[in-house]
């Protein structure tokens, strides 16, 4: 069965490409989502995308992935540094995930150095710009084991 991947982008990432381009580059979220889908398809996997500026909506989307998703790639945006709720959702659904940041958060303000996700992530991609999404998709398709499908509760 084709591996199913969910790509989640958190708050303000809808502005990717136009938001602080000296930090986040000029690639738009639409570019990222379309190229990630095409890349997954070319590798024999499926990829769904989700972006929200709302913490609860991200929690709901993660819960909906339970039992039907093999891997999550998540850029939690600013929620990286604040969200126990999104961390708990990822742990609750037991889907392995990659944490991704477009910018090098460790070269930025000290409060961006802490993440509520890194100690639980299968891997972390930081500071590779939009190229990081390509690395993440390739990695999860080639190296993640498909989950045993669990019935959604
Ligand atoms: O919104 C973002 C984007 C980000 O996750 C990144 O992709 O570099 C880094 C976060 O600190 C920031 O709040």
UniProtKB/TrEMBL annotation:
Protein species of origin: Talaromyces proteolyticus
Superkingdom of origin organism: Eukaryota
Catalytic reaction(s) noted: 3-dehydroquinate = 3-dehydroshikimate + H2O
Classification lineage: Eukaryota, Fungi, Dikarya, Ascomycota, Pezizomycotina
Family in the record: Belongs to the type-II 3-dehydroquinase family.
Protein name: Catabolic 3-dehydroquinase
First-level EC class: lyase
EC number: 4.2.1.10
Any matching Pfam family: DHquinase_II
InterPro entries: DHquinase_II (IPR001874), DHquinase_II_CS (IPR018509), DHquinase_II_sf (IPR036441)
Active-site residues from the entry: 24, 101
Subunit structure: Homododecamer. Adopts a ring-like structure, composed of an arrangement of two hexameric rings stacked on top of one another.
Binding site for substrate: 75, 81, 88, 102-103, 112
Keywords linked to the UniProt accession: Lyase, Quinate metabolism
Any one biological process term the GO annotation gives: 3,4-dihydroxybenzoate biosynthetic process
Gene3D superfamilies named in the record: Dehydroquinase, class II
Metabolic or biological pathway: Aromatic compound metabolism; 3,4-dihydroxybenzoate biosynthesis; 3,4-dihydroxybenzoate from 3-dehydroquinate: step 1/2
